[in-house]
Amino acid sequence: MVVNNDGYQQSVFFSSGNTVIASLYKVNNSIFEYFYLKKANEGLAKENVNLQNELANLKLRLDTMTTHPIDNADVQASSIDPNLEINYILAKVINNSTNKQLNYITLNKGIRDGVRKDMGVINEDGVVGVVSNVSEKFAVVIPVLNPRIHINGKFTKNNYNGFVNWDGVDYRFAKLNDIARHVIFSKGDSLVTSGYSHSFPEGILIGTVDDFNIEESDAFFDIRVKLAVNFRTLSYVKLIDYLNYEERLNLESEME
């Protein structure tokens, strides 16, 4: 009654009401945007993987044509560098730990999606880890943040290589081992995969040199590497499928 019979009270009421309604719309819009962005994020991740697969295929064809400019397609196919024959599988991180000594990551892809043990796992920033166990629908990854895994890496500027291993102290850093005292490098130098493993091709970023030290009696440097991947914000990852994995593994196993 007061509102209906008093112009000032009416204006105050409707002004306050509009403020409340606007706030509700803002909250509703924020919630909608959150779920919309989540869906858009997933779409962009899928598109990114599709584009990377196309790019890998184009690089493969370009490398073949420039190295072996032959008209015969069969001859060209046989001259393709087997290390370049890879495919990417997109997966969502559904479980992840960074505060344990033996951390692991669970993905929503498994055998039915083409995932197998020993597949390398990366994201847009760099190396994440290696697939350890696989079921029909899921896969468990041992990340760099686990002392049980050693990633073979090398400096981009001089190709000297060593093993990157986590010391269990800080999720942002790892150690680079087996770099002899005569090797020349600097803080900020990039460290990438060497290509010597069954899991990663050459050239994927692992991290950068954050700090290093060596005593007079030491034969090797003590090197701290700032990891390229932020393991506390992992959402989507890509699994690297070597198309010639079985052939290489079987051949190398004959030498053991």
What layout of secondary structure does this protein have?
Layout: H1 2-5, H2 7-67, H3 73-78, E1 86-96, E2 105-107, E3 120-122, E4 127-134, E5 139-143, E6 151-155, E7 161-165, E8 173-177, E9 190-193, E10 205-213, E11 222-227, E12 236-242, H4 245-253
Antiparallel strand pairs: 1-2, 1-12, 2-5, 3-4, 3-12, 4-5, 6-7, 6-9, 7-8, 8-11, 9-10, 10-11
In CATH's first tier, which class of the largest domain applies?
Answer: Mainly Beta
**Topology pattern, helix = H, strand = E:** HHHEEEEEEEEEEEEH
Overall tally of structural domains: 2
Query: Radius of gyration, Cα only, in angstroms?
Result: 26 Å
Number of strands: 12
What number is the mean pLDDT?
81
Task: Catalogue the unreliable spans.
Answer: 17-22, 73-78
Strand content: 25-35%
Count the DSSP helices. 4
Q: How far apart lie the N and C ends?
A: 93 Å
CATH topology annotation of the largest domain: Thrombin, subunit H
Commentary on this structure:
With 256 residues, this protein is α+β, with helices and mostly antiparallel strands. The chain folds into 2 domains: 80 residues; 172 residues, Rod shape-determining protein MreC, domain 1 (Thrombin, subunit H, Beta Barrel). Helices cover 31% and strands 28% of the residues. The chain is built from 4 helices and 12 strands; from the N terminus they run αααββββββββββββα. The strands form 2 sheets. It has a 6-stranded antiparallel beta barrel with strand order 1-2-5-4-3-12. Strands 6-7-8-11-10-9 form a 6-stranded antiparallel beta barrel. The radius of gyration is 26 Å and the shape is globular. About 5% of the residues have low confidence.
